[in-house]
Amino acid sequence: MAVRKVAITLPEELYELVERARAVEHRSRSEVIQEALRTYFSEADYRPSEAERAALVAGLEEAHVAPMSVRDWSEVQARLRARR
């Protein structure tokens, strides 16, 4: 699949939503924005269950209250690889 790099400008509130989502979901900005576009165009590839949705909301709240508790995605990946 060909990939193109695109620069976009976001209002501060949308930028903050993207940043909070990527921190909680341990995903890149590109992944979060790509999913948002797929959802907008009705091609969502991920729909959280109610339990996942509750966990995401709890994670966003925790990240807001205690930003130092948010882990870097590379750290999470390393821990997951170590479990294999």
TrEMBL record:
Known CDD domains for this protein? RHH_NikR_HicB-like
Question: Domain Ribbon-helix-helix protein CopG, which positions?
Answer: 6-40
Supply the InterPro entries for this chain: Arc_rbn_hlx_hlx, CopG, Ribbon_hlx_hlx
Q: Where are the transmembrane segments?
A: none
Question: Could you identify this protein by its name?
Answer: Ribbon-helix-helix protein, CopG family
Q: Which organism is it from?
A: Oceanitalea stevensii
